[in-house]
UniProtKB/TrEMBL annotation:
InterPro entries to which the protein is assigned, alphabetical: FAD/NAD-bd_sf, FAD/NAD-binding_dom, FAD/NAD-linked_Rdtase_dimer_sf, Pyr_nuc-diS_OxRdtase, Pyr_nucl-diS_OxRdtase_dimer
Binding site for FAD: 51, 300
Pfam families in the record: Pyr_redox_2 (PF07992), Pyr_redox_dim (PF02852)
Family indicated by similarity: Belongs to the class-I pyridine nucleotide-disulfide oxidoreductase family.
PANTHER family according to UniProt: GLUTATHIONE REDUCTASE (NADPH) (PTHR43014:SF5), MERCURIC REDUCTASE (PTHR43014)
Stretches assigned to the FAD/NAD(P)-binding domain: 4-315
Keywords, sorted A to Z: FAD, Flavoprotein, NAD, Nucleotide-binding
Protein name: Glutathione reductase (NADPH)
Annotated Pyridine nucleotide-disulphide oxidoreductase dimerisation domain residues: 339-438
Protein species of origin: Desulforhopalus singaporensis
Amino acid sequence: MKKMDVVVIGAGTAGQTVAYDLAVEGYEVVVVEKSETPGGVCSLAGCQAKKYFYELTELVAKSRHLAGKGVVAEPEVSWSQIVAAKNEFTSKIPSQTVAGLKGTGIRYLEGQAKFVNAETVQVGDEVFTPRFIVIATGARPMALSFAGAEHLVKSDGFLEMKQIPRRMTFIGGGFVSFEFAHFAARLGAEQVTILENTDRVLGPFDADMVDQLVMAGRKDGVEVRTGISITSISEQNGVYSVLLDSGEIHETDLVVHGAGRIPNIDFLNLEAAGINWNRRGIEVDELMRTTNNNVYAVGDCAATPQLARVADMEAHTAAASIVSRETGEVSLPIDYEAVPAVLFTYPQLAMVGKTEEQLQRDKIPYWKSTELDLSWPTYRRIGMKHAGYKILVDNDGRILGAHVLCDNGSGLINTLKQAVIDSVTAAELYQTNIMSPYPSRESDLIYMLEPLLD
Ligand SMILES: Cc1cc2nc3c(=O)[nH]c(=O)nc-3n(C[C@H](O)[C@H](O)[C@H](O)COP(=O)(O)OP(=O)(O)OC[C@H]3O[C@@H](n4cnc5c(N)ncnc54)[C@H](O)[C@@H]3O)c2cc1C
Ligand SMILES: NC(=O)c1ccc[n+]([C@@H]2O[C@H](COP(=O)([O-])OP(=O)(O)OC[C@H]3O[C@@H](n4cnc5c(N)ncnc54)[C@H](O)[C@@H]3O)[C@@H](O)[C@H]2O)c1
């Protein structure tokens, strides 16, 4: 029985962040990781890895939009070179992860952790009774129940493909499918289809903006179908037949899983530790404490948004809470009010705060400034046919929600995110953005805010 200060389960971004924070504070920390390739989804097969594909997607999409406006020939891209460039980056992550942790005095232990009781964690033959335990076990694609679901390629498999098939079909109309479908349509696939089973795709995003993105994608080769229920998938000679419950057979060369991710909690024996969870993940309070007072949960395994920097913030929050329990200082609760989300499609769809549907549902009064199908010079110059925005403010002019569809959604939403955090009014934001670098995506912000100034 070993008495460490802290056992962290999982060496993804959340687990590493909490481990470093606590090691720096002088805690004796062990990180337990079951994978032979530690480092986590974000680096190895998520945010970072997929950006190799996004950068080329942007290049191709932009050059297609500018054909005849200065671009004479579309750049020839090599899928295998993109994969190789990505692999050059990802191949170093596991050893860097272990070296980084060990170099900071953190013990790294390979193995699968599970709870024995409320205070005890077992990893192989080793049993720990630490003062605190942090669960950071991430998420994985959820199992799908239709026949032939084993034929689906998961997101990590997509990023490892040797070549890009001619026809690709994505199951689910969420983050993964939209991003990867936009990559596929620009990087070599000829027919790209998204099949969503509900009546709308990209549920968390503003419906009007999503409609614009769907139109933009359609123009560039991404077909989206909603209300589709899949009965089975079968394969013959490398061709996949997706049988829909309407009786239609949709033929394709590859089917990709983009139907949602569930928390990795099944093997942890959470019942033994008195830890509650639900379909979305482990239940936590605003300090990331679970229903077991000495156990915290952070990152994708918690019932909170599954985003990399949310995972990191949760890790910092948990670490600060642990430290505060000994120092008696007050540690700050996490606040999800201004979490930005960006879809790395082309154009990018970005949001912060509430959607118009949410405000209507919650009966919150609001004013809006919006333009869909935007044709400002900024976007005409780059041949973009679909760009748009929607800014929602309360009666005092404070921003309740902001939504942007353009080639630099991530940049613009950052400014709007700060406005939400600082609780500034549209008029104040207008004033501080007049002297923006001009002309730029950001300098357009004042035109978006103008209708809200009265
Ligand atoms: C394709 C894709 C693209 C994405 N793109 C973005 C993006 O652009 N921006 C963004 O913000 N987010 C993005 N995300 C989400 C982001 O990757 C996650 O929110 C983030 O990686 C979660 O980190 P984590 O540390 O919680 O989990 P993980 O990185 O999954 O780490 C969990 C670790 O725990 C280990 N583990 C699990 N169970 C056990 C056990 N019992 N014992 C020991 N170890 C265990 C796992 O092996 C793993 O190493 C993307 C996700 C995907 C799939
Ligand atoms: N840019 C980013 O920040 C980014 C990128 C990728 C993933 N992520 C994170 O990873 C999470 C998981 O992504 P995801 O795209 O797998 O899930 P998601 O939750 O975003 O979307 C899943 C979609 O699949 C649909 N669906 C479920 N079952 C289906 C079925 N049987 N047939 C057809 N459609 C079905 C759902 O209705 C939903 O629209 C995201 O919620 C996000 O937090 C973030």
